Amino acid sequence: MRRGAGTVPAPLLVLGSIVSVQFGGALAVTLLPLVGVSGSVALRLALATLLMWPWVRPSLRGRSRSDWVAVAAYGATLGAMNLAFYGSLRRLPIGVAVTIEFIGPLVLSAILSRHVRDFLAILLAAAGVVLVSGAVSTPLGDLDLVGILLALTAGACWAIYILTSRRTGRHFSGVEGLAIAMLLASVVVLPLGAFEAGSPLVGGEALLKGAGIAVLSSVVPYSLELVALRRLPPNVFGILLSLEPVVAAGAGLLVLGQRLSPVKLLGMLFVVAASVLILGAAQGNTEDQPAALDV
């Protein structure tokens, strides 16, 4: 997989990641009633770790302090991002949750951008996020403010994830850093999941769904993104991810039967248009892209 991914264009790797993670998210919605938020995250991370370690076999010896700082920050971000996002999935349709979550990469792109066209695209995407959140057409009292806040928190973690993933990719070869980060996140989240879910956490249905989510939402997308981020500036990567809301809406419809209103679908089209606009600018300005921020 690592050899093959190295020959595939980076944007296609990101697209594959998007499709995989959103169908994994739709499957996660069916797991949440069984084991709760932390239980679902614990299964996802722990099973993904068990699947990855025999394949990756990361080396732990001879690592520098900066290596451990990078991978620990990456692991902490993975855990926090998943807890916040799965919390939002309990309250919001998956397409809405993902679109609001995208505000994180959007803000990151604004911070890293140097071109006027980029900012116009960001404004267009921001308008799309407002439409899809329901803030325009829904009375304030009817909005699920907790769900929106959780999605925004997941978005902030998503932006940090982009940076920490890129930094981890510089310190570790292949996907070694990912495997170590997922182990660290699992060690923290698994006790929380066991406390919330109890015995259903190790039930047959939960384990089967958890394994599917681990592959679709963790192993495949994180591996593809880690490789892609070695070749893509983080602002371009962030805008590419703006396709996630549309894919999420499709997954929600196909897997969960969730239908969105025309206003929310219009908001998603705004986000996609912003993605097309910014990528057109990026193709002509690859040499001017800003360097990644280090955290």
From TrEMBL:
Membrane topology: Multi-pass membrane protein
Family classification: Belongs to the EamA transporter family.
Superkingdom, taxonomy of origin: Bacteria
GO CC term (a single one): plasma membrane
Keywords of this entry: Cell membrane, Membrane, Transmembrane, Transmembrane helix
Ranges of residues in domain EamA: 146-279
Sequence intervals crossing the membrane: 12-31, 37-56, 68-86, 92-112, 119-139, 145-163, 175-194, 236-257, 263-282
InterPro entries, sorted: Diverse_Substrate_Transporter, EamA_dom, EmrE-like
Record's subcellular location: Cell membrane
Record-given protein name: Inner membrane transporter RhtA
Organism of provenance: Flexivirga oryzae
SUPFAM superfamilies: Multidrug resistance efflux transporter EmrE
